[in-house]
Design a protein that fits this description.
Strand order of the largest sheet of chain A: 1-8-3-6
Largest sheet of chain A: 4 strands, antiparallel
Structural class of chain A: alpha+beta
Distance between the termini of chain A: 53 Å
Number of strands of chain B: 2
Order of helices and strands of chain B: HHHHEEHHHHHHH
Largest interface: A-B, 53 and 59 residues
Bound molecules: iron/sulfur cluster
Oligomer: heterodimer
Strand order of the largest sheet of chain B: 1-2
């Protein structure tokens, strides 16, 4: 694809890249994008490109050399996960799912890789006009990695290689939007599911009508094993997707026909399923008998989406606004990332020792819906697991604003246009007297800036990918680069702090009582833990 | 009640100062007259130092609020922070592989990473020894287990600590001022100094008690709306109502822009409007609804605002009195220098 303005070398490079089978089908628009954002990485023998558990969204295509991937299990054993020769690739699962890497990828011999950031890869993968690229990625995943991936499911851990290979051809990939009901409480269990990306909640209705969360599934966790252990297994609750979710589904019928009804192979797998069900549920009698586990699951519920919450202790907060004003001070655009008006959890729930407000500041979610919604690669996870915005790529489409379940992302005019809140002059900054120098009209207190309030304005500013920038999305960046988190640092009464939602609990007995009554699911359920809808 | 406002090691400063003063009075009762020159000088210096330290809180607060704190200058690029974090991750892996035998070696290594990446003034690392219990995952780890906790440096210390300093140094200041003046408060400047000192300290004590009790009080009243929500809603209703009344004409507009009568005039006008004038009726009805919503939120906001004012209002006396005191102290120092 020799383009106008390309040097001879660039034209040659382009020709070579698009001769590769994987990229050959890309239409000109996507080719241009790939050429703009491709990087080359070379590594010596034994160099580790990605570590297991590392947050990375980069997709790597092996141009030369070979790479081995190793996975270490919880019991400390490390095994070969997959082998990648030239013209194969890795990183697509993390790029699609935003989950940490499943294995450690290490060069066997000196290697050269062509790498794409997660944002660019997702554009190529999801483009509706380019099904061929997606098909190749999925096909290779099924051929190369699926068996290894399936082995991460406890039920298939001990399955011999040949049986696993036979089963993998029966697996089907499903993609569901947020809010899709996958299985209804009480219906017959007929398949095993593994969550490749996204999250699923399992809830049941109490006689009082209150919906109680039984468990969450994400990060390669699986459910439905009981369908193999018991003939008449029923779903203990209703399973619903909490975010756009990719699943791997293997039906009971397919497993039975592949391994052979009445054979020793099937009997062994059924025994493994029964042991697993008993191990996870204590007596195997179903979720009703799992009070301790339930407690853990429930308390962890707050973490399904949320990482750390910014919590204001309302018995301490004197409403001096110093937290918001500091947030303004640390950002050049003078727009606070923090709003004190957040979801309140009253002390009467007795989960928390005092009345608190969950301020609207980013939770750095385990399942960042903002990131999943962004089609421009403008949101990524850093090595510490924090969600960061890549402002050069942000076009201000505001998809993340609507996707964030906590309403913490704000929409502002594009960079370079007039700031919303002008910086105060020195005279204005004098306490009390400063009011005399302030301009009266149109001024909003920093605290009052509501999320997603401003309408997009046309602007000639372009993003790094060349799209027209309509605005900019902003959220708490934990005062990136500074030696403090301004809001926490400058609160005079220690009212505001960052807390793991699970640490907001009282004693377990107290929680147990509430679990039984089903009255605390709101308090621990992440989706309510920080929204502002004022 | 926020008891944390009173829990501080700085409490020892006024306690020691007052105990020392009472002890001296017990030994030499005529010290109360303040006749000793040495004592005057000592207590004067103590008062000045404690006042300056108490003022440091105010300085820190405004430096941060307006972005003038030197800590803002330490800001480092995000990619450097991320590089440091990635290297610390690598170090954690080395620990798991048993490559680091002692806590000291890990501390030295992590300090080197932070320094090399230029983030050592922004981040601090804490290395903890984590003993592995039998049966825990990671039992097979070849070497000792350490965890590395990397956090922001919080160089100057949190404002809450500085508030303690402000509070207790002010009490020490009051003790020192009383000792310094003895019974010689009859000059005008002496009276201003004593008066403003007492007002500043007394309002401060009242303020801190109100700060300890006020939030719970306000929170208990914020049943329907929080003060922030009430404020935002009130502004938004007001804005919408103003936009809507622009579309009304003549009498109808005047019903909303004139003196507040709780919508009585507007309702009367609505009743008088013929049914055929549907467009104006709809506009008027919308405006009436908005006005009703605004009135409800406004009354709620006023209650909450009054509650907030009642525990923040002490500052209206505290701050001007502190300014007067600062000026009087400057004049006092000047007079000593001149005479
Ligand atoms: S700085 Fe602290 S006390 Fe002041 S408004 Fe914020 S949380 Fe409340
Ligand atoms: S912006 Fe919202 S969705 Fe994204 S990580 Fe933060 S809290 Fe989660
Ligand atoms: S941590 Fe920093 S950016 Fe985040 S809300 Fe607090 S002051 Fe704002």
């Amino acid at each position: 694809m020799a383009e106008e303005g390309m040097s001879e070398l660039e034209a040659k490079e382009s020709e070579l890249i698009f001769k590769l089978e994987l990229f050959a089908s890309l239409p000109p628009r996507l080719r241009k994008l790939l050429l703009k954002f491709r990087r080359y990485t070379s590594g010596r023998a034994d160099q580790v490109f990605v570590h297991q558990g590392e947050y990375t969204e980069d997709f790597h295509y092996v141009l030369s050399g070979s790479i081995s991937a190793y996975r270490t299990e919880l019991d400390g054993k490390t095994e070969l996960f997959e082998f990648l020769g030239g013209h194969s690739w890795f990183g697509e699962a993390s790029a699609i799912s935003n989950q940490p890497s499943l294995a450690t990828y290490k060069a066997d011999v000196p290697c050269t890789l062509l790498s794409l950031d997660g944002g660019t890869f997702k554009i190529l993968y999801k483009d509706p006009t380019n099904q061929e690229f997606r098909k190749r990625i999925d096909e290779r995943y099924r051929r190369q990695s699926l068996a290894a991936h399936m082995r991460t499911m406890p039920i298939f851990k001990g399955l011999p290689k040949d049986q696993l290979a036979a089963l993998k051809s029966e697996a089907r990939f499903e993609t569901h939007p947020k809010g899709k009901l996958l299985a209804r409480e009480g219906e017959a269990q007929d398949a095993i599911y593994m969550v490749r990306s996204g999250a699923i909640s399992c809830t049941r209705k109490l006689p009082s009508g209150v919906e109680q969360v039984l468990e969450y599934h994400m990060n390669n966790s699986s459910f439905g094993e009981r369908s193999l252990a018991e003939e008449d297994a029923r779903w203990p609750g209703s399973y619903t997707t909490l975010a756009p979710t990719d699943l791997l589904v293997i039906s009971r019928a397919a497993i039975r026909s592949t391994l052979g009804e009445g054979t020793g192979k099937l009997a062994a797998l059924e025994r493994a399923a029964l042991a697993l069900v008993q191990e996870t549920s204590g007596t195997g009698a179903g979720p009703e008998a799992r009070s301790e586990d339930e407690l853990e699951v429930l308390v962890k519920g707050g973490r399904v989406k949320g990482g750390e919450a910014l919590v204001i202790d309302l018995q301490r907060c004197v409403r001096c606004n110093m937290c918001v004003e500091t947030c303004v001070a640390v950002h050049e655009d003078r727009v606070p990332r923090l709003s004190k008006k957040g979801q309140r959890t009253p002390a009467v729930i007795e989960l928390v020792p005092t009345e608190i407000s969950l301020a609207t500041s980013c939770y750095n979610c385990d399942i960042p819906e903002c990131m999943m919604a962004c089609n421009y690669g403008a949101i990524r996870r850093d090595s510490e697991g924090l969600i960061r915005f890549v402002y050069d790529n942000c076009v201000g489409c505001s998809a993340c604003v609507s996707a964030c379940p906590y309403g913490v992302i704000r929409y502002t005019p594009p960079p370079g246009s007039a700031p919303i809140v002008p910086k105060e002059s020195f005279l204005e900054s004098i306490p009390w007297l400063g009011n005399l120098f302030k301009k009266p009209a149109g001024e909003q207190p920093a605290d009052a800036a509501a999320p997603a309030a401003e309408a997009p304005k046309p602007s000639p500013v372009l993003s790094a990918r060349g799209e027209k920038v309509q605005g900019k999305s902003i959220k708490c960046d934990l005062c990136a680069g500074l030696p403090f988190e301004g809001c926490v640092y400058n609160c005079p009464t220690s009212a505001i702090s960052r807390k793991d939602p699970t640490s907001l609990q009282f004693g377990k007995d107290e929680i147990r009582t509430r679990v039984v009554e089903g009255s605390i699911s709101d308090a621990v359920h992440g989706r309510r833990a920080g929204g502002t809808h004022g | 009640m926020n008891r944390s406002l009173f829990r501080s090691p700085f409490v020892l400063v006024p306690v020691v100062a007052i105990a020392a003063w009472l002890g001296l009075l017990f030994l030499w009762p005529d010290l109360a007259a303040g006749s000793s020159r040495g004592l005057r000088l000592g207590t004067g210096i103590a008062a000045l130092v404690s006042m300056l330290l108490a003022l440091a809180y105010v300085l820190r607060k405004y430096m941060h609020k307006y972005g003038y704190s030197p800590e803002f200058k330490l800001k480092v690029a995000i990619d450097r922070m991320e590089r440091a974090e990635t290297r610390v991750h690598e170090l954690r892996r080395e620990i798991l592989r048993g490559q680091h035998g002692t806590k000291r070696a890990v501390e030295a290594q992590v300090a080197r990473i932070l320094r090399e990446e230029g983030v050592h003034r922004v981040l601090v690392a804490q290395v903890l020894e984590a003993p592995v219990k039998p049966g825990e995952p990671g039992k097979g780890t070849p070497g000792p287990r350490f965890t590395i906790k990397v956090t922001k440096a919080f160089l100057l210390g949190r404002a809450a600590k500085w508030l303690h300093l402000h509070l207790y140094l002010s009490l020490a200041f009051a003790a020192a001022v009383l000792a310094h003046g003895g019974d010689g408060w009859d000059s005008p400047l002496g009276l201003v100094l004593l008066g403003s000192s007492l007002i500043v300290v007394a309002t401060g004590v009242v303020g801190i008690v109100l700060w300890a009790l006020g939030p719970a009080w306000l929170t208990a009243r914020e049943r329907d709306l929080s003060i922030e929500e009430a404020f935002v809603l009130r502004e938004s209703f007001q804005r919408k109502l103003a936009e809507l009344t622009q579309k009304l004409d003549g009498d109808l507009k005047a019903a909303f822009t004139g003196p507040d009568d709780g919508g009585a005039r507007a309702r009367a006008l609505l009743a008088a409007l013929p049914k055929t004038d549907a467009a104006r009726r709809v506009l008027l009805q919308d405006a009436l609804v908005l006005q009703g919503q605004w009135a409800r939120v406004d009354s709620e906001f006023r209650v909450l605002w009054r509650t907030r004012l009642s525990f923040m209002g002490w500052r209206a006396v505290h701050l001007p009195a502190a300014l007067v005191l600062a000026v009087a102290v400057a004049a006092h120092l000047l007079s000593i220098a001149i005479y």
